[in-house]
């Protein structure tokens, strides 16, 4: 096969310089038939095509190889044999040729039998039409400890505006909190949400696009007025934007292992990076404007406004133990001791745990992650202290109790005297009644007077609580005005005893 350069020389010699075919063939060491071919057909880019590939060793085994490939095509992708395994199978059947011949034949067969599902169609979404949701994972240094963090990714389908939020779980309450945070961030709600088949959201996969969603998640969707749509299993291209965002965030935001104080620090960093990228990156379809400009000008006006946030908790029935603790997520939380040995409900949020009994909140704590942690609120055990004041000294709920310094000073003094435990319990009850600031002021006065006892503190509290004298009334009618001011005169009573008719 000639090169393009040789064809150029042949055509110039014949068409421009008028040389004969014989002379051109002699000059460039070509046959006259070859010269005649390129002058007659006008072909200027010669291409070589083998009419039939010779396969002296693989030829007898082509039928068997194609049969093996057809059998593998019916299996899942993970179960199909590689070209090397097919080569070894042919060797067991007597094939003595090279592996490279088998590899080329396998590649050619797969190219000719590529399914239509491997061809993708670009998707277009109207402003405000849909968002996509997915999870990603990243390992960070959080509070000095290496921690695996789950990152919720939300992406707007039209403007491509992203939002990322970090959590320590991928449970349903985290999903609901991520939606609430996203709708607050975007300034409204979209008409559709596109998800993969997360177990926290989708409880059953039915025929086609039909799904059975978690009832609490449907309550979230009903509150915010959006329609949840689940992708076809193993069809990640249906939410390809957020799939790409997961990988992009991993490369851009966490190219190295970063250090953060807590999750709030992580989320502040993520919001800053998302906004920074949106304000500088051009929109993939409208290159003249940035992602942020497309969002502000086209998409945000189309959103559904929703001012009332959804109460996104997951509820579970629990039993309050004899130590007034409930177990949830491998940790324990204290509740009001009056509800011990009863049934209650734990409402788990992304950041806190609320315990309810008969519609009344009996405990609220910051949510703990990990395991085998016990969180106490000492005030839950105050009714027990009234019966068992000695528990103040060694009770687990009271270790490291963060009370104001003057009250801690009084406790150190009272526990050195008989009955001091009970006096301090009375002082704690006074805090529940009068407030911590008022009791702290009374305690400071008692310490200054050098009289440390509950009776003194209670007396000082009573003085603080005395109602002030009413201001003098003005513009009273004449018949209501006092003409003679009352005087404190005990002699008046003495005159009554002497037999006077009246004391004037």
Briefly say what this structure is.
The model has no long low-confidence stretch (mean pLDDT 87). With 504 residues, this protein is an alpha/beta fold.
Q: Please state the average pLDDT score.
A: 87
Per DSSP E runs of 2 or more residues, the count of β-strands stands at 15
Radius of gyration: 42 Å
CATH hierarchy: architecture of the largest domain: 2-Layer Sandwich
State the share of residues found in helices, binned by percent: 25-40%
Strand proportion, as a percent range, falls in: 15-25%
Low-confidence stretches: none
Query: Biggest β-sheet: count, sense, barrel?
Result: 6 strands, mixed
- How many helices? The count is 18
User: What's the CATH topology label of the largest domain?
Assistant: Nucleotidyltransferase, domain 5
CATH homologous superfamily label of the largest domain: Ribonuclease H-like superfamily/Ribonuclease H
Amino-to-carboxy terminus distance: 145 Å
Q: What is the CATH top level name of the largest domain?
A: Alpha Beta
Structural class: alpha/beta
